[in-house]
Design goal:
The structure is a single chain. The strands form two sheets. A seven-stranded mixed beta sheet has the order 1-2-7-12-10-11-9. The protein has a six-stranded mixed beta sheet with strand order 8-6-5-4-3-13, covered by helices on one side. It is 35% helix and 23% strand. It is globular. α3 packs antiparallel against α5, α4 crosses α5 and α6 runs antiparallel to α7. The longest helix has 29 residues. It is α+β, with helices and mostly antiparallel strands.
């Protein structure tokens, strides 16, 4: 896997770009069978889901089989990397690259500070109340409500959230108070239209208990490298055509006509940023055995029949 930083925004770090090769199917894999989805980790069913026929939401059941591929984070590492999402992103990227049971597969990925989830919070709403509202309730069964939460990208833990008094949560609460809490690693899955917690359930619980903003890093698919290069070339050609058009207008009407850079330049910059950073739909693989196999596995996991 190759990695590199995205271009900074006004000097601020914006994210890490990952180029994955020779990994045709991930260990943490989304399988599809009609309206039914299965998230499996090295053949262990982790999450069963059924999309509502009217596309209002998703019924799900977790199996408690999920295991994070990130080793436990030591307190000394948290203090050493405090305040540096960039350094944490490089650390998580190494774990993602090495993990046979992670979500990466061939293509281009981004690991970025997740600001989308943050922008929905009203400044008057305490962090604890906001993040509790963003967490999907229910264990082992629950429902992702696309009608009430359309576009807000809820957060679905892959295992039950620990209590505030849990030993790990207590240790992370101290780090949250000190401002050195490591980021929560999220994965945006388009088929569920939500974020899955890949690592950091206890850290997220600690941030909620302390009512502080949890640091976040989001993983999502991005435009493949070949497509990015081709569309970047198209955007540059359009920019040059616009400048040529303005040059012809200036030749015809005189120097009162602008040269076009003030209009075409920002448009080009926005287009290039969009191409580099916009998330792409999550890949899913056909479930071997189709819906019949999904039902067999769901019955074994105790998922209610629809």
């Amino acid at each position: 896997m190759r990695s590199g930083d995205l271009p900074p925004d006004d000097g601020a770090w914006t994210g890490l770009e990952l180029e994955v090769r020779d990994r045709r199917q991930p260990g943490l894999c989304v399988f599809g069978a009609g309206r039914r989805l299965l998230l499996s980790q090295l053949s262990r069913p982790v999450l069963f889901a059924v999309v509502d026929a009217h596309l209002d939401g998703v019924d799900f059941r977790r199996t408690d089989a999920y295991r994070s591929f990130v080793p436990p984070l030591r307190a000394d590492a948290a203090r050493a990397l405090a305040g540096s999402p960039e350094r944490w992103a490089h650390r998580f990227a190494r774990h993602l690259a090495d993990a046979p049971d992670g979500p990466l597969h061939d293509g281009r990925w981004l690991l970025t500070p997740d600001r989308r989830l943050l922008r929905w919070r009203d400044p008057a709403t305490p962090h604890s109340a906001y993040w509790e509202s963003m967490l999907v309730e229910g264990h082992p069964d629950g429902y992702l409500d696309w009608f009430d939460h359309a576009g807000s990208w809820e957060v679905l833990p892959l295992r039950p959230m620990p209590d505030p008094g849990d030993g790990r949560v207590k240790a992370y609460r101290k780090q949250a108070r000190e401002g050195v809490l490591p980021p929560v690693l999220l994965w945006w899955v388009s088929g569920l239209d939500c974020h899955l917690v890949l690592d950091g359930h206890a850290r997220l619980a600690a941030a909620i208990a302390e009512s502080v903003e949890p640091p976040l890093l989001e993983l999502h698919r991005a435009l493949p490298g070949d497509d990015l290069a081709a569309l970047t070339k198209d955007a540059a050609a359009f920019y040059e055509d616009e400048l040529d058009r303005f040059a012809r207008l200036r030749a015809l009407h005189g120097p009162t006509v602008p040269d076009g850079t003030a209009l075409a330049g920002p448009r080009l910059a926005r287009r290039l940023e969009e191409l580099r950073t916009t998330e792409r739909p999550t890949w899913s693989w056909p479930l071997p055995g189709g819906e019949a196999r999904w039902h067999d596995l769901a019955r074994e996991a105790g998922f209610p029949e629809d």
